[in-house]
Amino acid sequence: MTRCLTVILIVSVFVGCGLSPAARERRAADTQRRADHIAKLKSYVPAHLLKTVDPEFYSNPGFRDWWRFPLTYPYSIHCIDTFESGDLCRHDGKSKISDGEEAQIQGLNALTAFSFDAQYLVGLMASEGTHLSLSSNAWESGI
């Protein structure tokens, strides 16, 4: 009986610690998916500008009760307390990302749905029920 319980305990610890082959495969797939997404985000940034981007821009997920989702540099979405909506923020290129000092772009908050590529950001703002559409020209103008 003791031997059986010992085996069950060892197997439980082995599976619970993520050492099972299925857990390793899921972790590897998640890591690859994140790497592919970051590579796509970086492909949207001109090469001369990409050299100046702090690597933390793409890797910092936020802290405690706020989450940070990078978009095309220098923009990101910040969510506080919930993932239901977020604010569009712009990094100034000088402050540390980990300080959370990215400036919120006034009037572009409470985004509940959005899609973007290298040239456009299209979203829905919950607070006003209005649609948001920005082109790369607006992004480049520094809004």
What percent of residues adopt helix (DSSP H or I)?
25-40%
Whole-angstrom Rg: 20 Å
Globular, elongated, flat, extended or rod-shaped: what is the shape?
Answer: elongated
- Number of structurally distinct domains: 2
List key phrases describing it.
five-stranded antiparallel β-sheet; three-stranded antiparallel β-sheet; alpha+beta; 143 residues
Question: Layout of helices and strands, plus pairs?
Answer:
Blueprint: H1 2-16, H2 21-43, H3 47-50, H4 56-59, E1 62-63, E2 66-70, E3 75-80, E4 87-90, E5 103-104, E6 111-116, E7 121-125, E8 130-134, H5 136-140
Antiparallel strand pairs: 1-2, 2-3, 3-4, 4-5, 6-7, 7-8
Describe the overall structure.
This protein is α+β, with helices and mostly antiparallel strands. It folds into 2 domains: 42 residues; 94 residues, no CATH class. Helix content is 36%, strand content 24%. The strands form 2 sheets. The chain has a 5-stranded antiparallel β-sheet with strand order 1-2-3-4-5. The chain has a 3-stranded antiparallel β-sheet with strand order 6-7-8. The N and C termini lie far apart (69 Å). The relative contact order is 0.09.
